[in-house]
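Technical note accompanying the year-one report. For the benefit of new consortium partners, we illustrate the data format agreed upon in the data management plan: each record pairs a sequence with a structure-token string. No post-processing was applied to the example shown here.
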Amino acid sequence: MFIPKVIALVPMKGHSERVPNKNIRLLAGKPAFHWILEALSQCKYIEQIVINTDSDEIIESACSKFNVTILKRPTFLQGDMVGIQPLIAYDISHTNGDYYLQTHATNPLIQSNTIDNAIESFFRQSQHDSLFTVTSIKSRFYWPNGKEINHNKNILLRTQDLDPIFEENSCFYLFSRGSNSKYQNRIGINPMMFPVNRLEAVDIDEMEDFYYAEFLLNKYVHR
């Protein structure tokens, strides 16, 4: 099976609203963003890692340890209110690739083999135009009006017997240049869901997430 090489996009800004300096903050002994760069560097199918950032500190730290391409974020893409798609479009326009994997510095537990397996799964099929990671959840969910979402309250199934609901966990997204250009979206029009273990899928949004990720890294993953 032929698998084309993939360019990894890792957007990182210097400022963070909820966790101060979260991308560069020391996490289990190293800057937080080093964890995802280590994983990407060990992937079989990632040929280039592109960091889009407004932070000189991130640039210096990344270039001192990793083989990366730096795209200094222009002023019109800086700030907390800029969404991800303009950053992706900018990165694609400044690189030469057909397929891209976009991930975050805030997913420090993602492993190289998980990324490689997702890439292989995507290129094994032809039905889907993109891939995104999900977490499978088996719990009883309700709409705000009290209506059940994924179960019948009159039939009390065990939670392990419920049909799962899948949460988009934002660990990574795989898409083509053509799909992103056409739909202006990293998910495309007919995406493939790729389940990721809930521990590996930890995402740092709040300080509680940071402490939890550090605990997991120290206990299970530290490398």
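Partners are asked to follow this layout when depositing records. The CA atoms of residues 15 and 90 lie 20 Å apart.
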